[in-house]
Amino acid sequence: MTHYMELLATNQPWNLLIFMALPVILAETIAVSELYILFTRDLQGRVRKINKFAGVIVGCYFLGIFFYLFFKAVIPITIAGEWRTIIDVIAVGFYLLGVIPLFGISLLEFGAIGKYKGEEWKLKLHAKFVALFLIVAHIAMIFGMLSPSLLDASMQMHQM
Hints:
- By secondary structure, the chain is mainly alpha-helical.
- It has 7 helices and no strands.
């Protein structure tokens, strides 16, 4: 089992809720509302307010997750040499890479990015951040569900 899946399976249901459900629910809220906003161009309505709220919350929340896991898991696992093949590194690495688009959305909502840009530019960047998050999150999930022993077995076959 990858460290990613082990994290989600340990301390049920709390780790699953903290590290997967809450960030994914907020990110999916952003993704779905983003489609509505892109089609209607309603930048002031209720859906945009929900989108903005979810963007601010998930970016800040995931930044906390990033720092927590980086110092409590990534550094200790690396120092101890306990990574379970490259599959494990990819799963955890791509999960943590989610901080870039999610915190980017928060920075955009706070006005720290694109403060003097037009709404069209901000809308495009927001959509790019959402797309990037969906890509890295799905790579993390796919590799997280793989068994690291897949590579161990193929490496053992090559050594024979």
